[in-house]
Amino acid sequence: MDGHQVERLLAVERYRRGEAIGAICASLKRSRSWFYKWLSRANPEETGWNEERSRRRHDTGACEENLRTRIIETRRRLEAAGTFVSAQMIAWELEDEQIELPSISTIKRILKVAGLTVPKRRMPKGTKYPAPLAMEPGSVHQFDFVGPRYVAGKRFYSLNGIDVSTGRAAAEPIQSRATEHVIPGLWNVWTRMGIPSILQLDNELVFFGNRRYPRATGQMMRLCLAAGVELVFIPIREPWRNGVVEKFNDHWNRMFYRRVKMSSFDVVRSESLQFESRHNSTWRYQKIGGRTPNDALAQSTVDLRFPDRPTPPPMPFGKPTDGRVSFIRFIRSDLSLEIFGQRFPMPAEATHEYVRATVDVAAQRMTVVLHDQVIQTHSYSLG
């Protein structure tokens, strides 16, 4: 047994004795995805599980034809089930079936020859939308809830976040959308993904605070502002503006919740971490040159910013004294800008356009921008 095999054997044994995965990986200078790979293969009744498996194809002809058939059959089965039919998705399916994996480019080539590729959708140009620019890792995260979902008859939610630049994601199961569960959930995501410069959200009540007192900041907003995070709220009733995390939500539903057998909330937590690790280490995005999210992060020169403590500070948090909160809104023919029930009259030039209204907490002022030009300012205090 060589040194690598011993390392894998001892890593799994340490875990079974109750040692934390992070401590094991740190001591071995190995990644979590490396650990989960060998943990999933570990079988005390099977000798050689800790040996490396070659991915080379040593035969051709009948073996290659069999692989081509399996890829096409898998593609058609996924399409019939109404799920993703990408080459990456097919690779995951083959891996789950313990089939020796071809490269993603090989799968794409076989699908193309078989006439089973899906043409790209071309989106028509429309009204200019002032989306935050995700230029580098950590610049913009999108967050959303999935749920309620159920395990053993009990309800839970998943707080899903994704780095728009790299596609690196986190899925944090929480027992409810109450503040006492959302705050620790957000903090746990930050400990894995890092703290973003901008956090883009929909208009969920827990994200901003209180509809009765629209300028009274909630605990999550206060935590984000204290951490130097600008909150950006997308237009009301336009969930597609959070399209990156919405697509990941669909992926989470199909590839995690509907497929993984779970008997308790604790199992949901552990399985969710494995799903998250698998996504970040193996899922390949065309927008980042076919790399995985982890590869894109590793090749970046950006250093992520992480929390300085393992758990969030105790609530309640103090009122914000600094930071920025932005609202992207579509101005209809009534020329009204709505922010959590409050309305501000807009000039005629904003009709049927998107504006971005940004509140400077320290200056207690809101600036409304249309096409990079300031069109209005208002006194606005958040408490």
Low-confidence stretches: none
Name the overall outline.
Answer: globular
Structural class: alpha/beta
Tally of individual helices: 12
CATH topology of the largest domain: Nucleotidyltransferase, domain 5
| CATH level 4 superfamily of the largest domain | Ribonuclease H-like superfamily/Ribonuclease H
Percent of residues in beta strands: 15-25%
Total number of distinct structural domains: 4
Gyration radius (Cα, Å) is 24 Å
Distance between the termini: 64 Å
Helix content: 25-40%
Taken in chain order, the helices and strands follow as: HHHHHHEEEHEHHEHHHEEEEEE
Quaternary structure: single chain
> What is the strand arrangement across the widest sheet?
3-2-1-4-5-6-9-10-11
The average pLDDT is: 84
Structure description:
By secondary structure, the protein is of the alpha/beta class. The chain has 4 domains: 3-41; 62-113, no CATH class; 140-298, Ribonuclease H-like superfamily/Ribonuclease H (Nucleotidyltransferase, domain 5); 324-379, no CATH class. Helix content is 36%, strand content 19%. It has 12 helices and 11 strands. It has helices spanning 3-16, 21-28, 32-41, 62-80, 87-96, 104-113, 179-193, 205-208, 219-226, 243-257, 265-282, 293-298; strands spanning 140-151, 154-163, 169-174, 198-201, 230-233, 324-331, 336-339, 342-345, 353-360, 365-370, 373-379. The strands form 2 sheets. The protein has a 9-stranded mixed beta sheet with strand order 3-2-1-4-5-6-9-10-11, with helices on both faces. The chain has a two-stranded antiparallel sheet with strand order 7-8. Helix 1 packs antiparallel against helix 2 (21-28) and helix 5 (87-96) crosses helix 6. The radius of gyration is 24 Å and the shape is globular. The mean pLDDT is 84.
